[in-house]
Specification:
Chain A is of the alpha/beta class. Chain A is built from 16 helices and 23 strands. Chain A: This is Protein O-linked-mannose beta-1,2-N-acetylglucosaminyltransferase.
Chain lengths: 659, 338
């Protein structure tokens, strides 16, 4: 073995030895060691003290929370504002607004109030409304002005906003393609210099006061058709006004205090917040004589569509015979704005922690709301179930008052509903007329407590079952051959366009032209004939009276029905067995009524109106009423179109429900 | 609102106690505004305690506990002297009578003495919904048709039993599996086979058997005798039994007895002393042991949270003890099966 020799090429580890020397030097100094030890002990003490302080502070904060809630009910201190940010005495807000192809954000005093960098969504002009005294966010909207008609919606929205509010605009991706002149002019009138010249893929931010000054505006033009403008960041200061200047001075009444609370928190509700002549929030509908439903609880099933809820509650509170103290709004989630709307009208609201997803979430929300309704009103034998996207007719409670005894006494009834699935403007005529149908329309209906408690609640679908609650209720295992009572002319109108099962096209096609009763205090005719056996007698009587139409003509044509009024006609269609709806579906399609599934039938019989004549359709031979068919008449058969023509993709059978 | 302003004008000071609405408690997580539970009006050295009662499903009246929040004046009135508010309470819905007292028209319960009697035993326990929800997360509920049917039958059997026993004035509580179902999941356990109730032997009445017979529940078997290990079992609809266990009180414990029919073997089940509280179960106001956890643990051991589908009453309970056999000459008396 070679002798090991130091390699002169390698440098000695000078650094290391220096460090070691220093270390040993230190360790040998006792004083230094002591110092380090005391230092460590002191550090330990300090952390312990900090921890104790933290614990005490948290406990105190927990007590203070209770203290604050105690303040709520002290009438002397109307502590109304729930501060979303700590109340500060600042007079100036720092506002940052960012606009770019893929991301927008708005920050107020360092707090992000809007941030959207998700792909494939949020395109267009984002609008934020701030309270000019507190800087709180009062409304947040996005208008996809790349697509048509959104600019009109934006103009409507901007016109409803009170003067003095701070408006913040920012574009994400593209916001000019369908931004028409009217909208551009509105923006110009708000003080924007850029809006009239906004073009393809420009980035734009703007902060201004409605009816007042401009706080800042920044713009980046897109250099070429295929590229976007550079991202734009606008930083500006906004001076806050005093609280008095930001509010209207309505006379001090309980109603106006509620109005003030609402209007300082939320924007976009138009004239309910006008300083002059605000729309009333209390309605005094005529009392209903002998109101049999004054003590029936009303459950409003709501999600997060506060503007829909607002419209719905207005119509509900205007209905004759309404008992506001029986109304409970159940909100599916801890959303503030729907609660604000509920409190504006002085109603009771309950929030539900949502579980599950999509239609299962809706179904769980229904269950929680119905169970809670019967818990809160243990004496109730019924509950009225409404949704946030319905207009309620002025005689809704009158209609129920006259018919509810049937639901109590006739066990063959499943529900009473205000909605006629086939009741369109051209197929419904008589608001005093009622039908029995083998389906559950929902959309404003009455649930019997024992049906819910004994049958439905115990086997309500569990959270992982992605079923529509109303499709489930319509299943034979639940319905068990029972029927619902409906009016010919619906007492509710479904106006929702946005929702879990809704869209604009669907609304246009199936809901827009639904007939809705506006006549107050309609006296229902012959209510007793809606009982099980009495109804059969009535049908037989009608069929006896009905004139048989000429079956050689095309039933889809208007001329199929003579130009008379008030007569009763009957038509026979082919219906091989109970579930054969081939001809009916084609007929429904060509008459432009509900054709997505079969609704409105009673033992193979449909009742509607055509050209103001009562029109009966009997399915032969499945219907027991086939015996009324004269032997000379051949039931009409309508063949479904061959697959190539008009094979319209039928959407998954919808519930037309919300969220 | 007018009430408070008027009271203030008359010189009253008042205090309002609010808290969460228990009617929103259930398997779903709901929250609404807090409800008023108590009001105290003070004038000089007099105080009026206004207790707010709410009707709960099950058609009984409930009032909440009186708890002061941190900032409230603990010396406002001598709270410890108040008769209502130590615990939440449940009462039968009384019929009211309008009477005139000192020229004031007031309403009083039609039967004041029975209302007052209820006070000492009015303590109410809410079902533990939070724990029940946690339990269902771990052990998802049986949603089969059989389970739904069984629950339905158990519920109506329990309602019928309650009606019958109440008409006789016999105090009872939820026992064994029925009690476990209430405590653990706020519902009838789907794999339990019957409805179990407990009655103190001192409350036994001979009328029980004929009364149940009249109500449509014939006696299925009778074990033991009033002096020792009495147990009654009634046949409900479709295989659901109603078991009534009679409990014997000793100085420092309580026990109930069991009998094995084919061998005449006796068993004793020990429980620490307990008192009775009201609660709401399947829309019925019923009693349960106030010291429920102790009761449950005595019967089911520390693993009571874990569902056990195969329960053998002779060996599974943790508090069971073999207690000898019945003398053969007594068998006809102490083992009666129909």
């Amino acid at each position: 073995m070679d002798e090991w020799k130091t390699n002169p090429a390698i440098k000695p580890h000078k650094k290391r030895s220096w460090y070691l020397a220093w270390k040993y030097k230190l360790m040998n100094q006792r004083a230094l060691r002591k110092l380090c030890q005391t230092g460590a002990v002191l550090f330990l003490l300090v952390t312990v003290i900090v921890n104790i302080k933290l614990i005490l502070d948290t406990r105190r904060a927990a007590y203070e929370e209770e203290e604050e809630s105690a303040q709520d009910y002290d009438d002397e201190m109307l502590n109304v504002e729930v501060a979303r940010r700590p109340v500060s005495n600042k007079k100036v807000l720092d506002v940052e607004v960012y606009s770019s192809r893929s991301k927008v954000y708005v920050a107020v005093d360092g707090t992000t109030v809007l941030e959207d960098e998700a792909r494939e969504q949020g395109r267009g002009i984002h609008v934020i409304v701030l309270n000019q005294a507190t800087g709180h966010v009062m409304a947040k909207r996005v208008f996809d002005t790349y697509s048509p008609h959104e600019d009109e919606a934006m103009v409507l929205f901007l016109n409803m906003i009170a003067r003095g509010r701070i408006l913040i605009f920012t574009i994400k991706d593209e916001g000019s393609f369908h931004l028409k002149d009217t909208a551009k002019n509105v923006l110009k009138s708000l003080g924007s210099q850029v809006a009239p010249f906004l073009s393809w893929r420009d980035m734009w931010t703007f902060v201004g006061k409605k009816g007042g000054e401009v706080y800042g505006e920044k713009h980046a033009k897109s250099p070429a058709l295929s590229t976007w403008g550079d991202p734009v960041l606008l930083k500006t200061e906004v001076h806050l006004t005093s609280v008095e200047d930001a509010e209207c001075h309505w006379p001090d009444t309980e109603l106006n205090r509620r109005r003030k609370r609402f209007c300082s928190k939320v924007e976009g509700y138009g004239s309910v917040c006008s300083c002059k002549d605000p729309t009333p929030i209390e309605f005094n509908p005529d009392p209903l004589k002998d109101n049999k439903v004054f003590d029936v609880p009303v459950a409003v099933i709501a999600g997060n569509r506060p503007n829909y809820l607002y419209r719905m509650l207005r119509s509900l509170l205007s209905a004759q015979g309404v008992s506001p103290q029986m109304i409970t709004v159940f909100i599916d989630g801890y959303y503030e704005e729907p609660m604000d709307v509920v409190e504006l009208f002085g109603l009771s609201g309950i929030q539900h922690t949502p579980i599950s997803i999509k239609n299962a979430r809706v179904s769980q929300h229904y269950k929680a709301s119905l169970t809670a309704t019967f818990n809160l009103f243990p004496d109730a034998k019924f509950a009225v179930v409404l949704e946030e996207d319905l207009d309620i007719s002025v005689d809704f409670f009158s209609f129920l008052s006259q018919s509810i005894h049937l639901l109590e006494e006739d066990e063959s009834l499943y529900c009473i509903s205000a909605w006629n699935d086939q009741g369109y403007e051209h197929t419904a005529e008589d608001p005093s007329l009622l039908y029995r149908v083998e389906t559950m329309p929902g959309l404003g209906w009455v649930l019997r407590k024992n049906l819910y408690k004994d049958e439905l609640e115990p086997k309500w679908p569990t959270p992982e079952k992605l079923w529509d609650w109303d499709m489930w209720m319509r299943m034979p295992e639940q319905r068990k051959g029972r029927e619902c009572i409906i009016p010919d002319v619906s007492r509710s109108y479904h106006f929702g366009i946005v929702g879990l099962n809704m869209n604009g096209y669907f609304h246009e096609a199936y809901f827009k032209k639904h007939k809705f009763n506006t006549v107050p205090n309609v006296q229902l005719k012959n209510v007793e004939s809606l009982r099980k056996d009495a109804y059969e007698t009535e049908i037989h009587r009608l069929l006896g009276e009905a004139e048989v139409l000429d079956h050689s003509k095309n039933p889809c044509e208007d001329s199929f029905v003579p130009d008379t009024e008030g007569k009763v006609y009957v038509m026979f269609i082919r219906m091989e067995q109970e579930a054969d709806f081939t001809t009916w579906t084609q007929l429904a399609k060509c008459l432009h009524i509900w054709d997505l599934d079969v609704r409105g039938n009673h033992k193979g019989l449909w009742r509607l109106f055509r050209k103001k004549n009562h029109f009966l359709v009997v399915g032969v031979p499945a219907s027991p009423y086939s015996s009324k068919k004269p032997s000379s008449v051949t039931p009409i058969y309508l063949e479904p179109p061959a697959k190539e023509e008009g094979a319209v993709a039928v959407p998954a059978v919808p519930a037309a429900e919300q969220t | 609102l007018g009430l408070f302003r008027t009271a203030e004008k008359m010189g009253f000071q008042w205090l309002k106690i609010i808290n969460k609405d228990p009617r929103l408690d259930g398997m779903d997580d709901l929250s609404g505004t807090e409800i008023p539970l108590h009001y105290i009006f003070k004038l000089a050295s007099h105080a009026i305690h206004l207790v707010v009662f709410y009707e709960r499903s099950g058609n009984y009246l409930w009032h909440g506990p009186l708890r002061l929040k941190r900032h409230m004046d603990r010396k406002f009135v001598p709270f410890w002297k108040l008769h209502f508010g130590r615990y939440p309470g449940a009462y039968e819905k009384p019929e009211l009578l309008l009477v005139s007292i000192d020229d004031l028209k007031v309403q009083i319960p039609k039967n004041p003495s029975s209302f007052l009697e209820e006070m000492s035993q009015s303590r109410f326990l809410e079902c533990r919904y939070r724990e029940a929800r946690a339990f269902i997360q771990l052990y998802p509920d049986d949603a089969s048709l059989d389970a739904v049917e069984f629950r339905k039958r158990a519920k109506s059997l329990l309602h019928l039993a309650a009606l019958t026993l109440d008409s006789l004035g016999v105090k009872f509580w939820l026992s064994s599996g029925t009690c476990l179902g209430w405590y653990r999941q706020c519902n009838v356990i789907p794999h339990s086979k019957d409805v179990d109730l407990g009655v103190f032997i001192r409350d036994y009445k001979a009328d029980i058997i004929p009364a149940f017979q009249k109500a449509g529940l014939p006696l299925k078997h009778k074990f033991g005798k009033v002096e020792d290990s009495l147990e009654l079992s009634f046949q409900g609809e479709d295989d659901v039994k109603l078991d009534i266990f009679f409990f014997y009180e000793e100085d420092d414990h309580i026990w109930n007895g069991g009998t094995q029919a084919k061998s005449g073997k006796k068993f004793k089940y020990f429980f620490p002393k307990f008192t009775l509280c009201w609660t709401e179960f399947v829309e019925l106001k019923v009693r349960v042991p106030c010291e429920t956890l102790q009761y449950i643990e005595a019967n089911y051991g520390p693993d009571w949270k874990i569902p056990v589908k195969m329960w053998d009453w002779k060996s599974s309970p943790s508090n069971v003890q073999y207690n000898g056999v019945w003398p053969v000459d007594e068998w006809d008396d102490v083992i009666q099966i129909y």
